[in-house]
Amino acid sequence: MDVAPDIDAVAGESVVVIGGGFGGLSTACYLADAGADVTLLEKNEQLGGRASRLEADGFRFDMGPSWYLMPDVFERFFGHFGREPSDFYELERLDPHYRVFWKDGDRVDVLPDREANKALFEEYEPGAGEAFEAYLEESERTYEIGMEHFVYEDRPRLRDYVDKDVLRYSWGLSLLGKMQGHVESYFDHPKLQQLMQYTLVFLGGSPYNTPALYNLMSHVDYNMGVYYPEGGIGAVVDGIVELGDDLGVEYVTDAEVTAIEGRRGGFAVDTADGERYLSDLVVSDADYAHTEQELLPKHKRQYSEEYWESRTYAPSAFLLYLGVEGDVPNLEHHTLVLPTGWDDHFEQIFDDPSWPDDPAYYLCVPSETDDTVAPEGHSNLFALVPIAAGLEDTPELREEYRELVLDDIAENTGTELRDRIVFEETFCVDDFADRYNSYRGSALGLAHTLRQTSLLRPPHRSNAVDGLYFTGSTTTPGIGVPMCLISGQLTAEELSKTA
To answer: Per the database record, which ranges form the Amine oxidase domain (predicted)?
Structure first.
């Protein structure tokens, strides 16, 4: 059941939103629509947060998110304001959804055709086709129940779960197990397990630390489809910014916040250029740890430095943005390159942090779909290797790893890039920390482990500063563009409850 959020109580309040990522942009839209006077302050030169764009020499890159999944979330978001995604951008369903190269020479395409994918699974393991159907049925049920009753409904207290309706809805859902055990109960072949688990990268986890509840991502992948918004994810940012502008949101870029002072009804938010913004309420979409540790005095923090140090963080990333001459015919818009056994890579992210020796990685080639992202006769692509947050990041290490990645691409996809590169830029741990104030340079924030899911994530409302709220990936429902859009709604609802 789609219930419109009730946030009218914020009408007439002035609100400063810190940070222009999807969580901040979403929150700003909901609050402005409800009648609040909203000013959004963004540290960087452009809005979008991690969904920044890099433009140079005729190439345009989405620097962060590049997959458009869960189209229903975007439809619901825009629908709240009487609009729809097509008012701002057009979508193309990708075919194939993505290509997978394994490093033993094997290759598969996952298609927007459920029967074809079922047949693919059956090729690898007798009976896997029927198991695929059963898995997707459970995944769909988990998605439908999980989204309506555990994602769109915030449950920040334990007592919110001790309820007969919650128990009824959650009956039969895989709430406590890990994804590895859950997938193993359906498929024996390790490659099929990988095909069902790769989406955990979008949640910043591994099969060994992510709750089995997130099997719902297979419904997102195989049933709902993978899309490309014309112009890239940056076009989605532009659409939400335009919507906010229509609703009366004031945007200020190049406005790095240095301090938050005051309380409900009397906040002062200071920026590095000497400006001071006064408001009744404050919402931070900046990194949660940065907000508490750097923008607030010690006695107004909910969590200690030791708390943040003890958390499990989603990976950072080594990113290589490349503009190349000619085509890259072996690569699809989305391409995954996987070792046949990826346990060592996950261990080097979560257990023994180090630069991966035999990495699993992702290649994005939007020029396969969109001829506006590269000059004529050229291709636009980036390589993303998940690595541990907090790793040492030096020019020498980046150069060494660049060579490893380019060698690996050539060997395992048959795509030699070196002699054709006309534009190149890297982005890594230190850049995530510097540009986004990301704790330990994580690319995504807190991982979705069992102890960091749902009510165990930091809350939307500060319990130390009256009138201070949080939105974005560290809060519920968590990591990913769709989840951050929903986080904006949940934050706006929380403001209204306590306004």
So the answer is: 23-495
Residue 203, SS3 per DSSP: helix
Give per-residue pLDDT as tens, 448-484: 887 888 778 999 999 999 999 999 999 999 999 999 9
Confidence band for 59, pLDDT divided at 50, 70 and 90? very high
Quick: pLDDT tens for 165-176: 544 555 455 555
CA atoms within a 13 Å half-sphere pointing along the CA-CB vector of 355: 15
Contact status, residue 109 vs residue 343, Cβ threshold 8 Å? no
pLDDT classification of 161: cutoffs 50, 70, 90: very low
Residues 6+ apart with CB under 8 A from 237: 22, 25, 47, 48, 51
Q: CA angle 154-157-162, nearest 5°?
A: 95
d(CA 155, CA 108): 40
The strand pairing partners of 423, in sequence order, are 323
Collapsing DSSP to helix, strand or coil, 230 comes out as coil
| Residue 390 falls in which region: left (phi positive, over 0), alpha (psi -120 to 50) or beta | left
DSSP structure class, residue 58:
T
Q: Please count the residues of the chain.
A: 499
- Rounded CA-CA distance 285/318 in Å is 24
In SS3 terms, 70-132 reads as CHHHHHHHHHHCCCCHHHCCCEEECCCCEEEEECCCCEEEECCCHHHHHHHHHHHCCCHHHHH
Gap between the Cα atoms of 394 and 406, Å rounded = 18
Domains of the chain (ranges, CATH numbers): 8-58+65-90+231-311+450-498 (3.50.50.60), 118-224 (no CATH), 313-436 (3.30.519)
Burial of 6 (0-12, 13-18, 19+ CB in 10 A): exposed
Enclosing H/E stretch for 268: strand 266-271
